[in-house]
Amino acid sequence: MTNNSNSDSTNFVDIYVIGTGMVGTRQFTQEAISALEQCERVYLVHFQKSVKKYLEEFTDQVHVLTDEYNEGEKRDNTYARMAQQVLDGAEESEGPVVFALYGHPMVFVSPSRWVIDEAPERGLEVEVQPGISSMDCLYSDIAFDPAKNGVQMFEASDLLLREFDLNPDIPAMIWQVGMLESALYTTNSSEPERFTRFREYLERFYPPDHSVSLLQTATYPISNSRQIEFEIKDFEKMADEINAIQTLYIPPANERPVQNEELAELFKSKEHIETITNKNS
Ligand SMILES: C[S@@+](CC[C@H](N)C(=O)[O-])C[C@H]1O[C@@H](n2cnc3c(N)ncnc32)[C@H](O)[C@@H]1O
User: Fold this and answer.
1) Beta-bridge partners for 74
2) Of 31, 177, 240, 266, which has the fewest beta carbons less than 10 angstroms from its beta carbon?
């Protein structure tokens, strides 16, 4: 069974799935630290040595899973091995294990999903905790409020595969632009052609001179967040600048005015609030 995040739960937890946040070790939540204090071992998906070192303050059994990545291998195979190691480790271990992934552990991540899905078959109890996602950091970096005009979010390759319609009135955040059109892991840089189909797809919904930004939030306390702005028509020219840890921000091309004027009037009406609320409650 998967618990909602709740450190006071009386159930014994076998696997805590936690997020490390984005900036080194400084975005661990109090409840993640509480899970670490109880755990026997940690399984970690994170490339920074300082994060491993920090986790070794809680247990000397910190297993870094990033070595599972192999050039040219299907990423899903890697994620399956990571999930198996966590599940096997939880079965072997006397106390709880922590599975720590960067950012939020449920946001655009596969191994944590597979651990959650397979745990019940093995009789393992999982507690998933929220973490600070790259998206949370980007909202701060560009002072973006998703309540203002809404927000549409897609994974870049999935957008092309399923051909979701983009709405140019709504800001868009597109994940994994640097990993377009392949399910295989590679550290190789991209050729300009990698972005042609994606640019053509965006141009179905936006004018070619619409400005977009590659956003990369800071991942070390001493580094700065980066923003690279360019026009959609120049996508291929940006190939050398695009990497696997950027998110593409597409601001709206149009401002959408209020469509329902009658309802807008009701919002100001005392009579209306009395009909939709109960004054005796
Ligand atoms: C596999 S997902 C992991 C997301 C992570 N779980 C989170 O909560 O942010 C990788 C994608 O997250 C986004 N991402 C990761 N690191 C980022 C960063 N430093 N700045 C902006 N976006 C980032 C990019 O879209 C990247 O392709």
Assistant:
1) 184
2) 240
